[in-house]
Amino acid sequence: MGQDPSGIKEELHRKLRDARAVVVAKLAGLDEYDRRRPVTPTGTNLLGLVKHLAGVEHSYLGESVGRPPPQPLPWVADGSIWDGADMWATAEESSEELVERYRQACAHSDRTIEALDLDTPASVPHWPADRRDTTLGVLLIRVVVETAQHAGHADIVRETIDGVGAPDHDDVADQATWSAYVARIEAAAAHFRPGR
């Protein structure tokens, strides 16, 4: 196994921790309904993103590198993940439970990342057989990308719910400036409104 003299693993790990924090932070200050309710036509919701990412961590940075987490996820164990059960919270699942499952999955992944080299062999059982074999490094990149993508989704979902934008939202401009900015964008787009 090789070393990582350039610090790539550490940088990927740092980016992953940053994106994880954004996803969880988007739940702060919301009631249970707003954490769970779908805000897109395909059902995207904040707590579902957290639940989904717990499974991503378990699968790619645990099971796929031969380090299954001590606690299996119920929606994986019963197979309901394949029916989309990882993308929304049931009435029986509390926010606290799902966030804690995510934190545990992340902690397990952190131990895996620290213990293994990027070129450690991995195998993803649900991938096609011809590309199932891979490495921890490839899977770490995948998890960083997927978590960052869902952090962006969480930003948009949260802004849709109550107007709370990205972490630097208030540093960039005040509400009056944001309103004027959005009005300029709408005015430019209006030139292309159908039937105009």
What does this structure look like?
The chain has 196 residues and is mainly α. It has one domain: Four Helix Bundle (Hemerythrin (Met), subunit A) (Up-down Bundle). Helices cover 56% and strands 3% of the residues. The protein is built from 8 helices and 2 strands; from the N terminus they run αααααββααα. A two-stranded antiparallel ribbon has the order 1-2. α1 packs parallel to α6, α3 runs parallel beside α5 and α3 runs antiparallel to α6. The chain is globular. The termini are far apart. The model has no long low-confidence stretch (mean pLDDT 93).
Quick structural overview:
The protein has 196 residues and is mainly alpha-helical. The chain is 56% helix and 3% strand.
Key terms:
196 residues, mainly alpha, Four Helix Bundle (Hemerythrin (Met), subunit A), two-stranded antiparallel sheet, 2 strands
